[in-house]
Design goal:
Layout: H1 22-25, H2 32-102, H3 112-130, E1 133-136, E2 148-154, E3 164-169, E4 171-174, E5 177-180, E6 182-187
Parallel strand pairs: 2-6
Antiparallel strand pairs: 1-4, 3-6, 4-5
Helix pairs in contact: 2-3
Length: 188
């Protein structure tokens, strides 16, 4: 069979196409001004974050310093309270020494054993003073409910009204704190 020139079966000829340039597919590189602006934004964000961390650190440090001070103050208060409680237990012994010394008959005052007992009494007083204990004997002074406890009143006295006429039991201070109020009689 002979083929004709007008054969319908021809292969199409492809038209030449242009190969796309790879540079056309990529976005354009940012301009130096855009890059600088982006870097400045990133730097500002980093500075902001660093300042936020620094502020948080400072707050935590201040909180820790305050906590440390509070713990030290609480510990000091606990120690002072424990010392005051212990010293308060010695006050009745001191009272007993004073009552015993006041009631010694005159004929026994020169006895060596009494001198020894009075020396122990003085030593106990000195020890309490060294620990910050001071006696409160308000005889003749104005009644102060913060320092004194009125247990009776006197109407027949030359002392002005509201003043202490008699100290029945000494009071004691531990620094500024009342360890035991003085028991007193007060003029009306």
């Amino acid at each position: 069979m002979v083929s004709s020139v007008n054969d319908t079966h021809t292969t199409p000829v492809e038209e030449p196409t242009t190969v796309p340039d790879k540079a056309d597919d990529l976005p354009a590189p940012p301009s130096p001004a855009d890059m600088l602006a982006q870097l400045e934004n990133e730097l500002e964000a980093a500075r902001s974050k660093a300042q936020e961390y620094f502020d948080g650190w400072q707050r935590e440090r201040a909180d820790f310093i305050n906590y440390k001070k509070r713990v030290e103050r609480d510990l000091r208060d606990v120690n002072q309270n424990a010392a005051a409680d212990m010293l308060k237990l010695l006050l009745p012994i001191l009272d007993d020494f004073e009552r015993a010394a006041a009631s010694v008959p005159e004929d026994l005052r020169q006895q060596p054993w009494l001198e020894g007992m009075l020396a122990i009494h003085r030593k106990l007083q000195k020890t309490l003073e060294d620990q910050g204990i001071t006696a409160v004997d308000p005889l003749g002074k104005a009644f102060d409910p913060a320092l004194h406890e009125a247990v009776a009143t006197d109407s027949d006295t030359d002392i002005p009204s509201g003043h202490v006429t008699e100290t029945l039991q000494k009071g004691y201070l531990y620094g500024d704190r009342v360890l035991r109020p003085a028991l007193v009689r007060v003029a009306r």
